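Work Package 3 (structural annotation) set out to generate three-dimensional models for the target panel prioritized at the project kickoff. During this period the team completed the workflow that converts sequence records into discrete structure tokens, so that structures can be stored uniformly alongside our sequence database. As a representative example, we reproduce one entry of 194 residues exactly as it appears in the project archive.
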Amino acid sequence: MGTGGRAAFLQDLHKKYSYIRKTRPDGNCFYRAFGFSHLEALLDDSKELQRFKAVSAKSKEDLVSQGFTEFTIEDFHNTFMDLIEQVEKQTSVADLLASFNDQSTSDYLVVYLRLLTSGYLQRESKFFEHFIEGGRTVKEFCQQEVEPMCKESDHIHIIALAQALSVSIQGMLVVSPVCVSLLCCCPPGCSVSG
């Protein structure tokens, strides 16, 4: 596509969205983008923040009851909860962004979101097994494609995380002006803004 087509594409995006935030394309970009975007939105929604905090606090127990080792997930969960509490204290967007730009904080958040995704996929394995290719079980898929860092996310990951946290997720993957993928996942009781 020539520069004229690219310019038209960018203008079209500008009409639909007030701003675009790029993410590092490292295989963890979905989780990092979701984490930042959702926590940023919670700065202006105290009711949803309290609901999200309660679900997130309980999520560690849910994972442990599924067989995830408490000792293994504890630090990741604590970092996740620390970020939520930072939002609860009305941190600035700049400070939230600084937390996400801190490699260890960002990586711990990504790991925990991956664990939540894996836990939900395994808990609802009867539903998701029909979407797993290659003759793998849901557990094998999670061990190979969800839990490891730097693995790309697909629709199945996004749907599972949205369901696990009872949040709406609307995402756009822009590889090039001719390769755009839009996904909107809205669990029951949620609404999508955007």
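The chain has a mean pLDDT of 90.
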